[in-house]
Amino acid sequence: MGKDYYSEKLNANMLFQAYDTAIPQVRDYLRSEIEFVRSQLRGDEEALELGAGYGRIMKELAPSLKSITGVDLSERSVELGREYLKGLSNCTILAMDAHSPSFDRTFDVLLCLQNGLSAMKGDPENLIAQSMRLLVPGGKAYFSSYSPNFWQYRLAWFQEQADKGLLGEIDMEKTGNGRIVCKDGFTATTFDFEDMERLGKSSGYAYTVEEVAGSSVFLTIVKG
What we know:
Blueprint: H1 5-8, H2 13-19, H3 24-39, E1 46-50, H4 56-61, E2 67-72, H5 75-84, E3 91-95, E4 107-112, H6 116-119, H7 124-133, E5 135-146, H8 151-163, E6 180-181, E7 187-188, H9 193-203, E8 206-212, E9 216-222
């Protein structure tokens, strides 16, 4: 399915249902991504999140940042996000394509978490190049995907979403090796250690690739 799957189907209130998971390992995964980023922050940064959805991560990190701006392709998710983030004066959420962002400013920190490189489709090298353009010198960009060690829990989570009717039935014959395929045409890929190393090298900047909490692979790029 094309890059509009998340904006047309898995958006707004459906995302709330997706994150309302009964699987403890998935809850730990979602929390550990946020805590990893929080541990890297000073507290005075201005951040940008790509693929922000309704602002789940923004709300969690807002107290640890000077400001955070989120962009998402789905106008419905952004509309919900404005309600969800109401009262948080340092949060702004906008409808925008992360592959062709239209900002006339730069940020200290850029976030593309929870397998955003896959969810936003398109060319990941372009997404990273656009991201680095939006960073100040010395700024850091964080990209995360699923660790191969998390496969069984990731598959269980997608099965849970399918059971809720949030995704189509999973095609188990075509699913495997980090790739989840649904019979409605939706496909979720992932970026392993080698993929992240390749993307880090292609960025032209200093980078690190590491596993976090046995569930995520993080690519951190520093704009020198």
